[in-house]
User: Which sequence fits this backbone?
């Protein structure tokens, strides 16, 4: 049975105007020129040092008339993103405004909406004023975590390098589009042999309370950045995962569920 949920932790911005595509192209990590009605894009907005500030899923809304793009963003930081976009806008012919539109996802069945641009297994995703639902946000989060896909709530702001979010594997970065904010350090990391840290899904053996530091013996192995019950996301040092080290959090065992879409952990 198809599960359909309103993603109540998301908000929608509308960006429009003659300069909207070049405006976003010069800021975001993905190639906005590839955006089409049947092809949404996931992209990050980074600091000049290449660290995560915001992310968004872009949807081509040109059918409304003129050149318009809808941005599916994390609701708790919507207003911060609005201010950041206004700062970059300067004299460009671009308008940015909040909307009352909502974000929906469907999985475990058929839907006519485009697939989530990060991973088809997440299901379909769309923006609308309303839709019939039979599931809730918690069900969607459980589905997402089972696939090992991080989301906006999992990204430490101004601390996480964009590729550490698995952006390359989840289609959130273009290495051919040219310059954007934070591009230099992102490209440099891409040309290394491997990343030293990654956001990875974990299963917790016990309630960690306020403890966030994962250990491999007496060494720090990572940081728990979000949690839903006994599942969470941790920014892990890859060497400890590849080496098969026994991991603990607050003295209780922790298992890393290396996602299949990341390829081999070794």
Assistant:
């Amino acid at each position: 049975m198809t599960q359909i949920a309103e993603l109540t932790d998301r908000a929608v911005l509308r960006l429009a105007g003659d300069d909207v595509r070049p405006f976003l192209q010069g800021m975001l990590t993905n190639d906005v020129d590839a955006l089409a009605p049947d092809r949404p894009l996931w992209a990050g907005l980074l600091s000049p040092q290449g660290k995560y500030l915001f992310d968004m899923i872009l949807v081509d809304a040109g059918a409304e008339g003129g050149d318009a793009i809808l941005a599916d963003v994390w609701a708790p930081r919507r207003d911060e993103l609005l201010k950041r976009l206004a700062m970059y806008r300067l004299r460009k012919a671009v308008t940015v405004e909040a909307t009352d539109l909502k974000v929906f996802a469907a999985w475990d069945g058929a839907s006519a909406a485009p697939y989530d641009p990060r991973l088809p297994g997440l299901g379909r995703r769309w923006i609308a004023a309303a839709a019939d639902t039979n599931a809730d946000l918690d069900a969607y989060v459980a589905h997402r975590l089972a696939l090992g896909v991080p989301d906006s709530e999992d990204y430490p702001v101004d601390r996480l390098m964009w590729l550490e979010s698995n952006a390359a594997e989840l289609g959130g970065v273009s290495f051919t589009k040219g310059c954007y904010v934070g591009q230099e350090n992102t490209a440099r990391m891409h040309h290394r042999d491997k990343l030293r840290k990654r956001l990875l899904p974990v299963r917790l053996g016990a309630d960690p309370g306020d403890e966030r530091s994962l250990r491999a013996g007496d060494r720090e192995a990572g940081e728990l950045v979000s949690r839903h019950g006994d599942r969470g996301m941790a920014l892990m040092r890859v060497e400890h995962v590849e080496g098969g080290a026994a991991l603990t959090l607050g003295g209780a065992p922790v298992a890393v569920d290396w996602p299949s879409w990341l390829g081999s952990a070794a």
